[in-house]
Amino acid sequence: MSNNVDDLQELARNLLRPARHPQRPPADVWERFDSVPTRYGPVATWSAGSGPAVLLVHGWEGNHADMEAFVTPIVRASRRAVAFDLPAHGESAGEFASLWDLATALEDVAAWCDGADAIVAHSAGCAAASIALGRGLEARKVAFVAPPLRYEHFIRFAAQRQGLDGDRLVAAFDTLGYEIDRLDIRTNAASIDVPLLIVHSTDDRICAAENATKIGDAWKNSTVEFVEGLGHTRILRDPAVVERIATYIVA
Asked: Of 83, 118, 123, 205, which cross-links 249 as Cys (Cβ 3.0–4.6 Å)?
């Protein structure tokens, strides 16, 4: 692909098109709801248990099943676990989705639940949650697993793989109205006063572990914990990590 403006804008749009991967059959713990209407479009939603809602937010190109390990301890603590496929992911509507779209869907699912008591998010879901919280979404506690730092890092990585000018690709996103400078969890943290726990594996090759420290330094009330050998996704299924996060958010 060339470095001309039209080609760069086309690449920018394509980077907002997540691949849909085959989904595992839903676990028996879930009750499936009809798609929840959002300003972005209908999103497929699952729920388990009763009580205050804990929203489970998966990452880019994932789906609700990625967060299944959290359901049992959340329900056991008399909370309602609510997971959904983000826009353009899993069984939800859409072909393209920016982080702004993901945040909007999160806000609308929270409203459908009559508010979020807590949020557990993974990877890009952490960025979406930070946007929503920065825009006023209320929650009592939040937990981030393997969060990214800046969306710009992903854009520059994509440009490098394509042999393109990173500065020009970032500019192409801005011309499309995506405000790349604001897609930084630290920027959103300045207006958020919600306790945060971050858990990150030191061997994460997708989102560097140093992200956790930088986000923790910017967040007013945060705890950062590191684990080893769990990568970017295995961490979501580790019993010790799941129990630590569940215990934190329901306390």
From this structure: 118
